[in-house]
Design brief:
The complex is a heterotetramer. By secondary structure, chain A is an alpha/beta fold. Chain A is built from eight helices and nine strands. Chain A folds into two domains: about 90 residues, 2-Layer Sandwich (Nucleotidyltransferase, domain 5), CATH 3.30.420.40; about 150 residues, ATPase, nucleotide binding domain (Nucleotidyltransferase, domain 5), CATH 3.30.420.40. Chain B is globular and about 65 Å long. In chain B, about 60% of the residues are buried. In chain B, the strands form three sheets. Chain B has a four-stranded parallel β-sheet with strand order 5-4-8-9, with helices on both faces. Chain B has a three-stranded parallel β-sheet with strand order 2-1-3.
Chain lengths: ~260, ~425, ~300, ~375
């Protein structure tokens, strides 16, 4: 049977169409802020087209992600960690923990022996704005996220910015720029700050295992952040390709059950 | 929607309680016109002065936050422009903001205080409490020490502390007599000590009944009640009566399996004040069939509990409750009885400050599945060791959820939607879905 | 190419009725903010030209570009300018400036120039920091406050909001004023949380205008609290980028029960103009001419 | 001068060296009301735990919403910077520090630890008795730990050493009253901070010859504006350095890690512990302990007058609740007396540009000529 999952994120929308455990098609699009409902339908239609299917062919659609309540055409909604957990188990049967780093949320999901969830840790408000901080810094530095990721990949920066709060961090970054610190250095400092934040959330309750922890979510594509995080936490993350689709995949798998 | 497992019905005593609360509020507003002294603080012995009414700013601030976001906002601003930092307890900021504005929520004039007797408490905000009215207009302020120390209890160490507290109390009483020319009535004090000892058995019973499944009451009911003991000092007899009535009704509810939440299938606990402007999250949790059986904070009237060696859940004793049976003849006896044999404060807060494990006992005794522990970013006593408790609780298999806000009485920076999302995540990740949409 | 709602238009202008060759002293001021940079050229006591553009990552370059655009096609060269003062977050990077002065003094003088002698209180609504300044005599500062940390970066918040609601940043203010009654402000102005806050409001069925209103009201309220700390007098003026946002200014006026003074100049220029004026005063001092003199001591607040 | 700077920078190394040299124990403490004399009399080195700026990704696990200082102290403990500390003392002060104390002990349960209750009601008639009995308990605890009794002459010696230190520090501060002082705010502050992590006898030596050197020093001419600094405790001199680069000088401070630490002496009496208690209950109070009689504003005004400051900087740590609660009164008093002041919050990192802007503006507000200089 054919099922689908849609991940309505803060920054981007992801859709996955699944047939008997095989991915038929993936679709991604920028989440249109408040017009999320409309843009989601667009992405959904494109994905259907890519899979050469009619809406009728899909027996069940499940939505997840922070904007899941904004889309109308789905049968069911599940919360993000549940979807992440499902996807992680599907991709890596041995996985014991899945970490999802997104635009403004970090979710650390500890998996139990069966498909149950032992613990979920989400960042508190003041630790929010990870992806968003990077985005707005990229804007300030006048580079794209990819460039920023490429430039800031490397050893820990000598300069440091506040790692507690996005706004302070930016303030510090401005000060650095003002003292003619090279862009790369600033970018690296900001990346480090983000890594510090994420790591402190990894430390929050159950420490993730070094070997069997899966890393998914939009930020997992950002090499610089991931490397900095590996350095800090000493965790050797398992990162699936198409990591940003994990949520949608999980939702689709749930729909199949 | 699924069939309810247990019958639910509103608490009958509640109406009576409402009346008493209204009366109390009135008695505060009319204090100045009746030429009655109004004291800022919360003291057991105020009863000794016939013409002295006591008001603490906590309930006021909480009420404001709960009733009107707008007014609370304006009050906080009134305080902010005078230099109040965001770290200041939200209750105070609301209450004193209203003082600076000079009127209350309903537009009636603000009841200005005539003197300040801060209730000693381990929370630093309490230590400095009541300075605002003192700095605003020159009124006397009296303070006691609230001894604290870590490690095992040491009665020798506490001798000096007890003497100090007895001395302070007597001193304050004499000062009030001197300054305001009021006569202190020892008889009433002695009587009230006995009475105050009299409330707690009922309160303790109520607390104990809540271990029953389904829980006869929920956090919401407790929050309506737990201040009553403090509210109606003016008539201790009445207070005891209503607590007895409550006790009996709850007992009856237990016998007939009357539940607070019809579909109770998940029990969770709290620690410390909720966001008073956002109490609807209790109802929201009920959609999952989850009931909040309270917190050490809301079971406070019953005094601190602990698990006895024989495994029963019983009050820890100490404090004045211990000594009410001793003969009380003089003012000093009464004061000593109030302070009791233990000078080290042992209300809910110290239990946490001294050993973060206290909540574990509570969790076990009330068979909770989860705990929601707020992190008040700028609250002091409300945040200290909260994270530690979370870790301890998860060690005994209780699922913990933290959410972040600014202050219990302060709407700023509490992201309600994020909190709702977190509640969903928390429930679903434990395999629970909403019972009805 | 997605539309960048957060981007506000850059601008430059040159006076047509001034012949700079005839003027006695030409001075300039350059204000390098975290988000925007302005350069201003003044001939004697009149505004000759300005340029206002977005600050890049390279402050040095931004300063140069701004100055270039200000000079524009007027044929004026840097060497014609007698004295240049730099100000703003990136003031040290105005390589061609002889001196740097803090924004607060510059805004005070600039606002004095723009709003005239009546004005007593200036509120600078900058992108990264907000400041409320109380003046006495002509350009003396009696008292000033800057926002505390959690009220920082409001300009950024507005940009994020524009992105999120897909409303061009210049239109936000007007659209937010379409509501008949303001809803309660959102609980926080920090841009890191803007997303969930706004989404929540939409979920509760708010209209676009109402979400904007709730958000801008929150910002206005924050600023209100800050301004209150200098005990403002009613002759007040708003400068800085956010002053162009009628949604904020209007609500601020309502909350404070005051109406701000108006001026034909772009409020964003205040800093740069002030810098240019200070430059002029310095030259006058050098020439031994009398500048506005400092009369008496601190007046009683 | 530089030596104080070095000690402060390498305080961990200093303490380790001290341990190796004397074979003695080192006690870390959190709060300004810590009765140093008793510890010193037991031959132990009391070291005030100071924060530093270090990326922190470990404390969120156990702490939330704390001020940067308390967080960072825990951070350093977990990261092993304080591995040489043999015990922890918390003399009751603010709850954030109590929290740091508690949480650190949960991480390192085997550390010797003691909690000294310091009355909140410092003016109380019987408070001194409580304090005295607490010191007695503390003394016994120390004796039990070290295994050797603390004699009266030990106490006398300790009191003497500490009083000397206080007198010398007062001497240094006295130099700052001159019209253009020979010593800068940053230097003086470094001295006080260093004195809180050093063996006082050694410190006194260093102080003596530092004072000699100071007297034949040329004062700096470019720091005309005299500022007073009040607010939360600090552990670095960034702010002082900053204002000095802007033509001002901090001539006096009212900070628990600054002047308040050494301001008053122990007045000897037969009951040594009582003498010590009276000293601590009579010291210039921190915002938290300044409860009933509100001595703090008067003290601040006194210093302001004595040192002829032009303006006051109030620098508060974010989430430092005692000062958050005390500020309204301070503002009120300063306004009434028409004293210009500027208030701002600092965090783990001191955002350079922002602070520079504040200070530059404040300084030129006090001395408008600077704008046209």
């Amino acid at each position: 049977m054919i099922t689908a999952g849609i991940d309505v994120g803060i920054e981007s929308l992801k859709a996955v169409i699944l047939k008997d455990g095989k991915v038929l098609a993936r679709g991604i699009g920028l989440s249109g802020g408040v017009n999320r409902a409309r843009t989601t339908e667009q992405v959904w239609r494109d994905t259907l087209a890519a899979a050469r299917l009619k809406p009728g062919d899909v027996s069940k659609i499940i939505a997840t992600g922070q904007g899941k309540n904004d889309v109308g055409f789905v049968q069911e909604r599940i919360t993000e960690p549940v979807a992440d957990a499902r996807a992680a188990r599907f991709l890596y049967p041995k996985a014991t923990c899945v970490v999802d780093i997104g635009a403004d949320q970090v979710r650390v999901v500890t998996l139990g022996p069966q498909n149950n969830i032992l613990e979920v840790v989400m960042n508190q408000k003041c630790a929010a704005g990870l992806g968003i901080l990077l985005k707005s810094m990229a804007r300030t530095l006048g580079m794209t996220l990819e460039e920023m990721s490429r430039l800031s990949d490397g050893p820990t920066a000598a300069a440091a910015v506040n790692d507690g709060c996005s706004v302070f961090a930016e303030m510090d970054a401005f000060s650095l720029l003002n003292r003619n610190t090279p862009k790369e250095e600033v970018a690296r400092a900001v990346t480090e700050a983000v890594a510090v934040r994420i790591n402190s959330i990894l430390n929050d309750k159950m420490k993730p295992s070094k070997e069997s922890t899966v890393l998914v979510g939009g930020l997992s594509r950002n090499k610089a952040v991931v490397n900095a995080l590996k350095r800090r936490s000493g965790i050797n993350f398992l990162i699936p390709e198409q990591a940003e689709y994990a949520g949608a995949l999980g939702a689709a798998l749930m729909a199949a059950e | 929607m699924s069939k309810q497992r247990w019958e639910t019905r509103p608490l009958e005593v509640w109406n009576k309680a409402k009346e008493m609360r209204a009366e109390w509020q009135k008695s505060i507003d009319t204090a100045s016109s009746e030429r009655v002294l109004l004291a800022q603080g919360n003291i057991q012995w105020s009863i000794g002065f016939p013409a002295l009414r006591v008001i603490e700013d906590n309930p006021v601030g909480a009420m404001m936050a709960n009733k009107s976001d707008e007014f609370a906002r304006i009050c906080r601003l009134a305080g902010e422009v005078l230099g109040w930092g965001r770290e200041v307890c939200g209750y105070q900021l609301n209450c004193w903001g209203a003082m600076y504005l000079g009127h209350q929520m309903d537009g009636s004039p603000f009841p200005f205080r005539d003197l300040v007797i801060p209730f000693p408490d381990p929370c630093d905000q309490h230590t400095k409490r009541g300075q605002a009215p003192m700095d605003y207009s020159p009124i006397p302020r009296f303070q006691e020490n609230w001894p604290l120390y870590t490690g095992p209890r040491d009665t020798d160490r506490e001798k000096a502390m007890i003497e100090d507290r007895v001395y302070c109390t007597l001193y304050i009483i004499e000062e009030i007599e001197r300054i305001f020319g009021q006569k202190f009535d020892d008889e009433r004090l002695i009587e009230s000590v006995k009475v105050a000892g009299g409330i707690s058995p009922y309160a303790q019973d109520v607390s104990r009944f809540m271990q029953h499944i389904p829980s006869p009451l929920s956090q919401k009911d407790l929050y309506s009640f737990y201040t009553l003991g403090g509210l109606t000092k003016s008539d201790p007899g009445e207070t005891v009566a209503i607590w007895k009535a409550l006790r009996d009704e709850v007992e009856w509810r237990v016998e007939n399996n009357i539940a607070a939440v019809g579909n109770e299938r998940y029990r969770w606990m709290e620690a410390h004040p909720p966001p008073w402007h956002f109490l609807k999250y209790y109802r929201y949790m009920e959609k999952y069939g989850a009931v909040c059986i309270g917190s050490q904070y809301s079971h406070m009237m019953a005094g601190p509990f602990e698990i006895k060696p024989d495994g029963t859940w019983a009050p820890r004793g100490g404090g004045f409750r211990q000594l009410v049976n001793k003969p009380i003849k003089t003012r000093e006896d009464a004061i000593r009885a109030m302070i009791g044999t233990e000078a080290r404060g042992h209300r809910f807060k110290d239990d946490e400050v001294i050993r973060p494990y206290a909540l574990n006992d509570f969790a076990k005794a009330y068979k909770v599945n989860g705990a929601i522990l707020p992190l008040w970013r700028c609250g002091v006593g409300c945040t200290v060791t909260r994270k530690e408790q979370g870790l301890r609780l998860s060690e005994i298999g209780v699922r913990v959820l933290h959410y972040e806000g600014s202050q219990p009485g302060d709407r700023t920076d509490l992201d309600e939607n994020r909190m709702m999302d977190q509640l969903d995540v928390w429930m679903e990740s434990q395999g629970l879905r909403k019972l009805e949409e | 190419m997605v539309q960048e709602y957060w981007r506000w238009p850059e601008s430059s202008w040159t006076a047509t009725n001034i012949d700079w060759k005839k003027s006695k002293t030409i001075t300039a001021g350059v204000d390098i903010g975290t988000n925007s940079s302005q350069a201003v050229v003044m001939c004697d006591d009149r505004l000759f030209s300005y340029a206002s553009l977005r600050t890049g990552a390279d402050y040095r370059a931004s300063a140069g570009v701004a100055m270039e655009q200000a000079l524009g096609s007027s044929g004026m060269k840097l060497k014609n300018i007698r004295y240049i003062v730099g100000t703003g977050w990136g003031s040290q990077n105005v390589s061609f400036a002889r001196k740097t002065v803090d924004e607060i003094n510059c805004h005070a003088r600039g606002a004095r120039f723009m709003y005239g002698p009546a004005m007593k209180t200036v509120v600078d609504l900058g992108a990264q920091t907000c400041k409320a300044i109380r003046l006495y005599n002509w350009d003396r500062i009696r008292d000033f406050v800057m926002n505390d940390k959690c009220a920082a970066g409001m300009g950024r918040s507005i940009e994020v909001m524009a992105d999120l609601l897909q409303v061009p940043i210049q239109e936000m203010g007007e659209r937010s004023l379409a509501v008949e009654k303001d809803p309660e402000p959102v609980s926080t102005t920090c841009y890191a949380f803007a997303n969930t806050e706004a989404i929540g409001l939409f979920r509760e069925g708010y209209k676009e205008s109402e979400v904007l209103a709730a958000y801008l009201f929150a910002i206005a309220w924050r600023i209100h609290g800050m301004v209150g700390r200098v005990q403002p007098e009613k002759e007040l003026a708003f400068t800085g980028g956010l002053a162009k946002n009628s949604g904020i200014v209007n609500r601020l006026e309502r909350a404070m029960g005051m109406t701000a003074l108006t001026s034909e100049y772009d409020p964003q220029l205040a800093g740069a103009i002030g810098a240019a004026i200070i430059a002029k005063e310095i030259t006058e001092k050098a020439d031994g001419l009398k500048t506005v003199s400092f009369i008496g001591g601190m007046p009683h607040p | 001068m530089e030596r104080f700077h070095e000690v402060l920078q390498n305080r961990h190394e200093y303490a380790r060296a001290w341990e190796k040299r004397t074979g003695g124990k080192v006690l870390g403490y959190y709060e300004p009301y810590m009765p140093d004399e008793v510890v010193y009399a037991a031959g132990i080195l009391p070291v005030r735990l100071l924060s530093q700026h270090e990326p922190d990704d470990v404390t969120d696990r156990q702490m939330y919403g704390n001020c940067a200082c308390s967080r960072d102290i825990l951070n350093q403990f977990i990261k092993g910077r304080y591995d040489y500390i043999d015990g922890l003392i918390n003399a009751e002060g603010c709850q954030w520090m109590l929290n740091a104390f508690q949480t650190t002990l949960n991480n390192k349960p085997d550390l010797f630890n003691h909690y000294v209750f310091v009355p909140d009601y410092v003016d109380g008639h019987t408070s001194k008795d409580v304090m005295c009995s607490e010191l007695n308990v503390f003394k016994k605890a120390l004796e039990k730990w070290t295994g050797k009794p603390i004699m009266d002459n030990d106490l006398d010696r300790a009191i003497e050493v500490y009083n000397t230190n206080r007198r010398l520090m007062r001497q240094v501060y006295e130099l700052r009253r001159a019209d253009n002082p020979v010593i800068l705010g940053s230097e003086a502050m470094e001295m006080v901070l260093a004195s809180q992590v050093m063996d006082k006898e050694e410190m006194n030596e260093m102080l003596r010859d530092a004072i000699d050197k100071l007297t034949e020093r040329k004062p700096r001419s470019d720091t005309g504006v005299r500022l007073m600094l009040i607010g939360s405790p600090t552990s670095d001199v960034e702010l002082e350095k900053l204002v000095e680069s802007l033509g001002a000088n901090i001539v006096i401070d009212e900070i628990c890690t600054g002047s308040c630490y050494f301001w008053n002496e122990v007045i000897p009496q037969d009951d040594r512990l009582m003498a010590i208690s009276l000293r601590y209950l009579g010291r210039p109070h921190c915002a938290l302990k300044d409860n009933n009689w509100r001595r703090r504003p008067a003290h601040i005004y006194q210093l302001y007058e004595d040192y002829q400051a032009h303006g006051v900087i109030i620098a508060k740590q974010i989430y430092c609740h005692p000062h958050g609660t005390d500020n309204p009164l301070i503002w009120k008093v300063l306004r009434e007396r028409n004293i210009p002041f500027h208030y701002f919050e600092r965090d783990t990192t001191l955002p350079y540009e922002e602070t520079r802007l504040r200070m530059e503006a404040f300084i030129s507000m006090l001395k408008p000529e600077l704008v046209l200089k």
